[in-house]
Specification:
4 helices; 27% helix; globular
Length: 157
């Protein structure tokens, strides 16, 4: 096994490169670039840098263990054990996201076809924005053109 101090001394010659990252050996030797467990404040859910107060803290969302297990299995093995369902639609993959919402590739189990589902952000069921989105969906549902995506359903979940 190699001596960590010897490796740290040998790697100090390479530190002159711009953007050099500390090696594992340098981190174990107590280098100031290392991040220790004290830099994460788990009591309030914020992540710090260990270098003092953070100007714009990031809130860490609590994660359900079952959801985390399914997410890891999905990344490792491709398909999720429990696919996400919205109404009669089974969500397959995320296609994209924008300012208005997120678009997913989905499967319509009732009509046996692949579709796209767009979930809008921040639309309350009784506001002016919801009424506008309803009118827009009704207008799009009446159109039939190769460059216009047909609308089959409008719902709130």
């Amino acid at each position: 096994m190699r001596d960590p101090e010897a490796v740290a001394e040998a790697s100090s010659d390479d530190d002159s490169r711009a953007g050099a990252r500390p090696s594992l050996e340098r981190t174990e030797s107590g280098d100031s670039d290392s991040v220790d467990a004290d830099s994460v404040d788990s009591d309030d859910g914020f992540i710090g840098t260990g270098l003092g107060p953070v100007a714009a803290p990031v809130r860490v969302a609590p994660i359900d263990a079952e959801h985390l297990r399914n997410a890891v299995a999905s990344r490792l093995f491709g398909a999720s054990a429990d696919p996400v369902k919205i109404g009669r639609y089974t969500i397959l993959t995320r296609l994209g996201a924008g300012a208005m919402g997120v678009v997913y590739a989905a499967y319509d189990t009732q009509l046996d076809r692949k579709i796209a589902v767009k979930l809008l952000r921040g639309v309350d069921e009784e506001g002016a924005h919801h009424a506008r989105m309803t009118r827009e969906a009704q207008a799009l549902a009446k159109l039939s053109h190769p460059n216009v995506v047909p609308v089959f359903e409008l719902d709130t979940f």
